[in-house]
Amino acid sequence: MLAFLVGLLCFVALGGGYVARGQDAKGTRFVCTSIPIDADPNCPLPPIPMQSTSPQEDELRNTVMQLRETILQQKETIVNQRDTIKELTGKLTQCESASESTMLDGKQNQGSWRKDFSKTSGKDTMGDLPRDPSETIDNLGRTMQSLKDRLENLEQQQMRANMSGAAFPNELRDLLQRRLGDLENQLLNKVSELEDEKSMLYNETAAHRHRTDAALNTLLERITELEKGNSGFKSPEDFKVSLPLRTNYLYGRIKKSLPEMYAFTVCMWLKSSASPGIGTPFSYGVPGQANEIVLIEWGNNAIELLINDKVAQLPLSVSDGRWHHICITWTTRDGLWEAYQDGEKLGSGENLAPWHPIKPGGVIILGQEQDTVGGRFDATQAFVGEMTQFNIWDRVLKAQDIMSMANCSSNMPGNVIPWVDNNVDVFGGATKWALEMCEDRLYDS
């Protein structure tokens, strides 16, 4: 009967699906098997069929076990937090009592509450407690005093540096730098100017120095002669202009200018022995046209008349070193021209700048050809010799009038440009000399 009961209990346990979970991580199962009392336990018995469990039941069983473990962990955590809350409450009570006693007793019991608490409470899980307000104020005062001391030391060091001259103010330093920069620039400019002057001196040729010396000697001679009293003229027209050197700085200039003209006559007395070519007795330049009217003998070419830069060659020859009277007429109608020497007409032509009016407001230069109005002379085109009685009319003179002037039987000043002393300026060493033309001509002949 007893054996039957034991077997029944095992069967019920197995049939109800109870599984004994051991501590082994592999999940080993122990199965109870009923055997008769008188049977040998070592003998194998036929297996008893067992009721299998479903996967859903296993999953539910595992979930229940996990929930149980979670509940146990939360319970333990609640207990720990309860202890912490008690400890915090006790410390808060200690802080409040210490603050009240400090306000009542002043400084008598400062810090005593902290010492007592550290002795009685044992473990301190809150770390450092707040400092006493009075102690904090004292610490702040000491810190401020330390900062003040450091600031005073820095100010004293700066004052000593300024007194010793170790440091300059920014404004003074900037001013000194600007002054030094200006002085350096001035020095560099002066050095550059000296170098340029040195270069110019080295580039000057010996021939140029020789011409300069000769011109100065001539000027000194002319000045000496003038100082002896040779500057007086009997009449305003009784003078000549002397241009003794072929340079680009000896010339005369007529003060008056020309009006607009459609015809003209130019007459003068010339004396020259220069070769090759006598140069340029006169030129008239206007803005935009430096060769408005030019009379020139350049090199071995014939004497040429230029009007508005158009050229006609004249059959004249005056380079024998004697005085010669020449006249040139021109009219804008068909560009007709005529050339006279010593009262005789030696040539004529047409189509020289026809229908071109002579422009007004230009500059008349004696002895030089103009490349720009009133300047840029070329020494190779300079006139060398003497001239007088330079007159201009705004019409074509008759042949009889030209002959009368050439043989000294009449004197006809130009109605546009007359030959008078106060209308002629000389430059660069050109000189004026008293002259009675007819008497001097008779002397030459």
Keywords:
445 residues, alpha+beta, seven-stranded antiparallel sheet, 8 helices, 40% helix
Characterize the largest beta sheet: strand count, sense, and whether it forms a barrel.
7 strands, antiparallel
Shape: elongated
Q: Strands of the biggest beta sheet: in what spatial order?
A: 10-9-8-3-12-1-14
Structural class: alpha+beta
Range of strand content:
15-25%
What does the radius of gyration come to? Answer: 67 Å
Q: What pattern of helices and strands is seen along the backbone?
A: HHHHHHEEEEEEEEEEEEHEEH
**How confident overall, as mean pLDDT?**
76
List the helices and strands and how they pair.
Elements: H1 2-15, H2 55-105, H3 112-121, H4 133-164, H5 170-203, H6 206-227, E1 239-243, E2 251-254, E3 263-271, E4 279-286, E5 289-297, E6 303-307, E7 310-314, E8 323-331, E9 336-341, E10 344-349, E11 363-366, E12 385-393, H7 399-406, E13 424-427, E14 431-434, H8 437-444
Antiparallel strand pairs: 1-12, 1-14, 2-11, 2-13, 3-8, 3-12, 4-5, 4-11, 5-6, 6-7, 8-9, 9-10
Helix pairs in contact: 2-3
Note down, in words, how this protein is organized.
With 445 residues, the protein is α+β, with helices and mostly antiparallel strands. Helix 2 packs antiparallel against helix 3 (112-121). The protein has 8 helices and 14 strands. Helices cover 40% and strands 20% of the residues. It has helices spanning 2-15, 55-105, 112-121, 133-164, 170-203, 206-227, 399-406, 437-444, and strands spanning 239-243, 251-254, 263-271, 279-286, 289-297, 303-307, 310-314, 323-331, 336-341, 344-349, 363-366, 385-393, 424-427, 431-434.
